[in-house]
Amino acid sequence: MLNLIKLKENNELNILNKVNYFKSPSYIYVPIISEATFKLDDYVYKNTYFDKYISSISGYIKDTKMVRINNNLVSTIKIANDFKENSKIKRKKKSVKNIDDLIIILNEYHLEEISNKILAIKNKKTLVVTAVDEEEYSIKEFIRLSENYSEILDTMDNLANILDIKKIILATKNTNFKSIKNVKSIIGTYPNVLVRLLPDKYLISYKPFLCEYLNINDNSTIVLTTNEIYEIYYILNKSKDICETLITVSGNAIEKSLVINVRLYTSLEEVIKEYIKFNTNEYAIFINGYLSGKKADDIKEIIITKDINSIVINKIEEDNETECINCGACIKICPVHINAKSCYFKKMSHKNCIGCGLCSYICPANLKLKEIVSSDNEKL
Fold it and tell me: Taking the complete model, does pTM exceed 0.85, yes or no?
């Protein structure tokens, strides 16, 4: 039985529903597999690939640097922006008639995560597109639907035809008033698309919980986000590589929370210097959620990838852990029924933990339960 909660509202973390653009970084840091593929002072055209990583600007290779990607230190090349947007890559628009055509073009544009989601479902009966972010205080998916609702609906309809799926659902929170209004204005053009409104509860977009709430079979349902649908639209209609991503920057240590469109592999430090004003000198940075994300030890090591959806910058709080009072709140709230208290005292992680952070959120003793229970608890 689904039992999710609504997080406490925090007015300090309200985010403006407006996109800011940071398209001219001084440098980007593109991951490399082999140093034999480049030389210092080589000129790099925009849209040049180094293995699966793309240069989002044009310019000259100036140095190499170690950065953090997916929790791992990775070697990158530092490219100085010449601000000319030179590109040699010209892709021809391709006809996509079936799933095989679709998978080929998704992989060509290095959208393997999307193709894997599609291929993982053998008996495809339902397509669900969600405009709800999994992380707290992130509105990337909400913004994508608000800004590109026409493209989203058109691509959903097209994708369902390609995959031969009859049931199509667009799921968004019932508090997403702007998007709901926009979608309603054109939904009659897409009679196969059913709009479902979701309660404003944490983790409602997590696939098993989403399918349970919608009363559909998890094993026959493809779930994609609005941003993933937009990526499909972009490569099918514009025949261009994707060089940008949306991130939400929020937190009580900054004056204003923002949504920013950023070039891939831009330094987080440069984005913050450009857009963020702090109201304190003491702060901590969390990547992909305060509850569910990971703390960043060194901001200078972090670059913006497609895997980064949100950045939370909060004031440093005192470490006020007290003795466990055996209230059982962490056990009751866990959406996957883990005994977090037992794991904490045994200093053991749990393979079923989804890293949501609700155990730490609810604990009256302020125990750092998630840091122990999560099977993926390394710091960035």
Answer: yes
